[in-house]
Amino acid sequence: MHDLHLDLTPGVGRRVALENALRQAIRSGALSAGTALPSSRSLAADLGLARGTVVEAYAQLSAEGYLRSRARSGTQVATGPVATAAAPAPPRRDPAPIRIDLRPITADVNGFPRTAWLGALRHALTTAPDTALRYGDSQGDEQLRGALATYLGRSRGVRTTPDRIVVCAGFSHGLSLLCQALARAGATTLAVEDPSLRPSRDTAEHAGLATVGVPIDDRGLRVDELGAVDACLVTPAHQLPLGVSLDAGRRTELLAWAAATSGLVVEDDYDGEFRYDRQPVGAIQGLSPEAVAYVGTVSKSLAPALRLGWLVLPERLVEPVVRLRHRVDRHSPTLDQLALARLITTGQLDRHLRRMRLRYRRRREVVLAALSRIPGITVTGIAAGYHATVLLPPDSSETAVLHALRLAGIAADGLADYRERPGRAGLVIGYGTPPQHSFPAAVESFATILRAAL
Predict the structure, then answer these.
(1) Is the dihedral of CA 117, 119, 125, 127 positive or negative?
(2) SS3 for 389?
């Protein structure tokens, strides 16, 4: 029989405090397996407790497997995993609340043109006929489709007419409609870039298509590894997340693959308007409109909250996609469509994009300056958009670096989250989310923690 020295935690009931103290003593090894405990009467007298309190505590811990009681043998510490002495666990540090968000999830919404958007909405409300407040066209408002056809041709080299455009509620919605239409037509597989956004793969698979990862190199998608697939999803202007552009030779190869196999190229032009080292790279769709389904949104150019996007489709896919759209959610908000058409036709969207290109260019320079002081890393994807990929030294642990950042309250993505097959450790950081006034300090904090973690 051992003497027990138990510290009962104040502030909780006496039975609960006794149970907690006994559990801790067993887990830490202070009470080893087979140790006989005092009788309930003796322990109650030692601790100044009612005997019933000790009886209830012993019964509870016996039920949990910490103790065992036998007639004429008293109560003992049970044998088994719970009674095995273990080394004390190191003190745990919980991640701090996120104070610096460098995940590549959103544009700099602080730059959203509120005044221009309000004016465009006011114009839509005051000029739209009453019929515009009824159920709208499942393909999208005619004014917006006309404005988009002109704008996309001028800014992205897209060859289309309003009747080939379907307005949707952002990229994921558009991709889902397109994949469902392909699956209903007999398609079974969609090639995706590896690495790429996991949610896009999930969307395609939910719509009924199996996804197949195809590797990326410094020229973009390895077209020679496409294999037997029905369609291929690419980000040719600025690959997400590695940031390379699909070069001219690979573009030709990709369209040749589509022609030879009757396959469809799905072009995600998520940030094509933002390029800093040269003119933006034009869309693949302009080279072969019947082989490419082009997807664009305002999520990066304006704000994701608007939930407006568009599909520019080959003729054979327009009717199936519109039919699906009508069955699922009828149409996008008409007044928002009219407001976006107004921003485009008055040139206000172009002016906004020029302002944002300058802002992102300046942020890009801050990021490059901070990362240039960290030896052993390689930075890619910085020539366009508002994200960069930081490839870590070969012997680095991506998990450890991400953990160090989270302990400091800094959120970033790990490259492993984008990969289907193993590859070099890295981080994917966005420079659109931190507010303008705190951006330099945010990047410096990130660089300081990253350097210390390597």
Answers:
(1) negative
(2) strand
Q: How far apart are CA 202 and CA 147, in angstroms?
A: 32
DSSP state of 116: H
In angstroms, the CA 26 to CA 15 distance is 17
CB 417 within 8 A of CB 434: no
d(CA 138, CA 184) in angstroms, rounded, equals 19
Contact 75, 55 (CB under 8 A): no
Question: How would you write the pLDDT of the chain (454 residues) with one tens digit per residue?
Answer: 455 667 676 666 788 888 888 888 888 887 888 888 888 888 887 777 888 888 888 888 887 888 888 766 788 888 765 544 444 444 555 567 889 999 987 788 889 999 999 999 999 999 999 999 999 999 999 999 999 999 999 999 999 999 999 999 999 999 999 999 999 999 999 999 999 999 999 999 999 999 999 999 999 999 999 989 999 999 999 898 998 999 999 999 999 999 999 999 999 998 878 887 767 788 999 999 999 999 999 999 999 999 999 999 999 999 999 999 999 888 999 999 999 999 999 999 999 999 999 999 999 999 999 999 999 999 988 788 888 999 999 989 999 999 999 999 999 999 999 998 888 999 999 988 888 888 999 999 999 999 999 9
Mark 420-451 as b/e (b = at least 16 C-beta within 10 Å): beebebbbbbbbbbbeeeebbebbebbbebbe
Would you list the DSSP string of 170-183? SHHHHHHHHHHHHH
